[in-house]
Structure to design on (572 residues):
């Protein structure tokens, strides 16, 4: 597998003066931050803080929302993603899990095999291995191993959510972005996936957007607090919870005294 | 404390007698009955039509009818002095060849247009294109027949150097162009019914536009697309006027697209007015009607079963 991170401070993602607008409405403004290679970077913050918009911009999702416009720079491995010609190549290196799970209307197997197939993997045995490994990692294998040919869109909500996790992993991404991945998943399974994420850190960089402050605490190395479209604070996760924060609003949010 | 409004609500509720049928209840019942009658009446009409057609053809079916001759004889000679022959094989071949060619023309056209409208254009352009397609669908079939007669006919004679331009090729193209707009419209609806979140999910994974269409959208829309195609087939079997004008209307089992043929429907349309009510010829025409009815029914049933099969998967 990938060797130990070359240097813990290598920047995977560098965001400079990011601003995101929907029409004339500003959703995100003035965000600058750096996400390091092989870290789990947590993002917490109340509704409308711009967390999802932030992830969408990284993946160049504004391309299919004519309403959405992005200003500023996002450097992925030092390359400005706005300038990338082959956006498909970029997206293949970034796995995303949406908050609302989308099981594509094809079999469970095909859902997970889609990305490898798009990347040109044809060998059946190879695909089998990838599918099984990704479903295992998403803690879904035991539940679907006998129904790999069932329609993915017919799984239960929580299963679909894990299916999208498996699908994102099947891309073997450099960067995995999870947006509230556990809203439909029970706590025990969530813990299992969290453990997997901690292991995956060896292989990839992970951005974890979560409404569960404790989830960030459990697995994120560093955590950012977003509020009303700005990034209020970035700190090693433990600091946020021991009160070593520079902004009072962060402390209030983390301690649940918000509003 | 919002104690007051809360208390009021409770009182209203507690005053409610759950055995009392209020106005809403009666309106709901009334609507249910009306909708039920509407649904039933459609079935009753269809059954009624079927019974009527069958009754008109019944004498023929019972007396002169030879199953073998009817289905397998290529000779349709209902007014022969010597021996009347009622074989519809050539007519079936005519209808089938024209419909088959029409689908060869219409399927690529309509699916291509539908994919273009649904997946490649937005906003105003999209609306204009949709309206245009719907306008095309509204062209009366006699106009298409006229185009076949006065434009396609000389064109085919010229281009292919054949003596007659009213043939399978002509009618197939005309029927294909005629069926394409409505097929496009239905196919486009089917593509648009695929939720955008599927497209976004696939695109976020790095699928190209074409990969999204090919791997996600088309498979997800296959029921609707199949429906569109079968609707086109149904249209082909049922179309009368344009086919009557463009096929040449001569009884033939075609061996090439340049042969003139005659369609089942056109035969009924052209001959029914000249027969004596109740005569064997008249009854034979109605038997063709029954036959068309059964075929259409089978097509629809197959479509239904296929669609169900796909759903169950
Ligand atoms: N597609 C869109 N079109 C228009 N406005 C949008 C769109 N998506 C998000 N917004 C707006 O952008 C702002 C930020 O939304 P975003 O979804 O990024 O917040 P969030 O932090 O992810 O919130 P939540 O925790 O509820 O998911 C909100 O005010 C929202 O109304
Ligand atoms: Mg969100």
């Amino acid at each position: 597998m990938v060797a130990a991170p070359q240097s813990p401070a290598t920047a995977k993602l560098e965001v400079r003066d990011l601003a995101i607008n929907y029409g004339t409405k500003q959703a995100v403004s003035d965000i600058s931050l750096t996400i390091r290679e092989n870290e789990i970077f947590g993002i917490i913050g109340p509704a409308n803080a711009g967390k999802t918009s932030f992830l969408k911009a990284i993946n160049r999702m504004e391309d299919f929302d004519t309403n959405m416009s992005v200003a500023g720079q996002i450097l992925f491995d030092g390359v400005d993603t706005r300038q990338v010609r082959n956006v498909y190549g970029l997206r293949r290196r970034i796995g995303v899990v949406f908050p609302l799970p989308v099981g594509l209307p094809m079999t469970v197997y095909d859902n997970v095999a889609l990305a490898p197939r798009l990347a040109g993997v044809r060998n059946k045995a190879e695909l089998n291995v990838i599918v099984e490994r990704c479903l295992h990692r998403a803690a879904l294998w035991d539940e679907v191993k006998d129904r790999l040919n069932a329609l993915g869109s017919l799984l239960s909500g929580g299963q679909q959510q894990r299916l999208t996790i498996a699908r994102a992993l099947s891309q073997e991404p450099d960067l995995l972005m999870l947006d509230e991945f556990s809203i439909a998943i029970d706590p025990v399974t969530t813990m299992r996936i969290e453990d997997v994420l901690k292991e995956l850190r060896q292989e990839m960089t992970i951005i974890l957007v979560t409404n569960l402050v404790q989830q960030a605490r459990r697995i994120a190395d560093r955590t950012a607090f977003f509020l009303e479209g700005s990034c209020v604070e970035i700190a090693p996760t433990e600091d946020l919870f021991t009160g070593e924060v520079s902004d009072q609003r962060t402390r209030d949010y983390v301690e649940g005294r918000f509003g | 404390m919002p104690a007051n409004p809360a208390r009021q609500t409770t009182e209203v509720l507690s005053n409610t007698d759950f055995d009392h049928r209020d106005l809403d209840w009666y309106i709901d019942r009334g609507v249910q009955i009306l909708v039920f009658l509407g649904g039933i009446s459609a079935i009753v009409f269809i059954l009624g039509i079927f019974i009527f057609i069958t009754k008109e053809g019944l004498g023929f079916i019972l007396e002169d009818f030879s199953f073998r001759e009817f289905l397998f004889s290529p000779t349709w000679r209902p007014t022969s002095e010597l021996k009347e022959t009622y074989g519809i094989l050539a007519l079936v071949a005519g209808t089938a060849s024209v419909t088959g060619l029409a689908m060869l023309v219409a399927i690529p056209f309509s699916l291509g247009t539908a994919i273009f409208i649904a997946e490649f254009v937005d906003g105003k352009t999209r609306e204009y294109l949709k309206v245009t397609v719907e306008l095309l669908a509204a062209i009366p079939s006699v106009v298409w027949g006229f185009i076949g007669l006065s434009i396609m006919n000389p064109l085919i004679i010229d281009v292919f150097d054949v003596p007659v331009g009213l043939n399978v090729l002509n009618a197939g193209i005309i029927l294909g162009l005629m069926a394409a707009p409505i097929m496009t419209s239905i196919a486009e609806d089917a593509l648009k019914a695929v939720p955008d979140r599927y497209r976004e999910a696939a695109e976020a994974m790095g699928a190209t536009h074409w990969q999204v269409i090919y791997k996600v959208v088309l498979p997800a829309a296959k029921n609707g697309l199949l429906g569109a195609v079968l609707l086109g087939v149904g249209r082909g079997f049922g179309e009368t006027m344009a086919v009557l004008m463009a096929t040449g209307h001569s009884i033939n089992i075609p061996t090439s697209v340049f042969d003139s043929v005659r369609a089942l429907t056109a035969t009924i349309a052209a001959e029914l007015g000249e027969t004596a009510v109740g005569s064997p010829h008249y009854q034979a025409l109605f038997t063709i009607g029954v036959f068309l009815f059964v075929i259409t029914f089978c097509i629809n049933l197959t479509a239904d079963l296929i669609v169900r099969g796909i759903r169950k998967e």
The mean pLDDT of chain B is 88.
